[in-house]
Amino acid sequence: MRKKRIISLVAVVLLTGVVFLLVNLFSIKNKPRSNEIAGKNLLNQAKAKLVEGDLVAARDIYNKVMEETGNLRVLEKIKKKIEQLNIAILFSPIIDECSVKYTVEPGDVLSRIAKKFGTTVALIKRSNGLTTDIIRPGDELKVNTCRFSIVVDKSQNILFLKRSGKVIKAYVVSTGKDNSTPVGKFKITNEKLENPTWFRTGAVVSPDSPENILGSRWMGLNIEGYGIHGNRNINEMGKQVTQGCVRMKNEEVEDLFDIIPAETEVEIVD
Fold this sequence. Notes:
Layout: H1 2-52, H2 55-68, H3 72-90, E1 99-103, H4 110-117, H5 121-128, E2 140-144, E3 148-153, E4 158-163, E5 166-172, E6 175-176, E7 184-194, E8 198-200, E9 203-205, E10 217-221, E11 227-229, E12 240-242, E13 246-247, H6 250-259, E14 265-269
Parallel strand pairs: 3-14, 6-12, 11-13
Antiparallel strand pairs: 1-2, 3-4, 4-5, 7-10, 7-14, 8-9, 10-11
Helix pairs in contact: 1-2, 2-3
């Protein structure tokens, strides 16, 4: 009798173990499927917000997808979408966590407002759709309030634009051949030039010359002879081919030029 009880108990224990194993296997098997469905639901919510014109909400939902998905292909697509939204919001009148609505006071000019908030006149104009510098008391302007910074990774030839320490956009760039771009912490100087003239040894190259390697914008660093500038040869992007400067596509350097003020920190790493 005792022997039969022992056998019955063993059978119950074994059966319980088998059931537990099957339940866990079923759970593991269906977890990825559950995550996939949840991810698709979030993506649909983000698309709906885009249709409504709520770019900030759409961006926040995409960020949530980034945190929850493990699909590398989806991650790359979502990352690009978030970067596009970051720049679209930045250049729009939409107020987000890094901007305020400022009411123009008597005596205000754009340069004074830009200095007060540590931003640029160009960014204020682009964010508010202004085509001139004329503003009037009572006008309401979106003004950026967060500090930007830049990190250039020479090993990847990528420039990261950060706002309040978070990357909001990554750009493929070119850096110095033979690893000649200096490493360290620098700042953008007041030498920010549109359509710069290139002063090379023994020659002055005009902005419209096809030989001018500086492209459409120049932002000097506080280390003589080095800066971030445009580029006429997009085939060289992502390579170490420059004389030490950081080159960007013209359309991208023009955006960056408008975004970052003088004194912006630039860190260059290997």
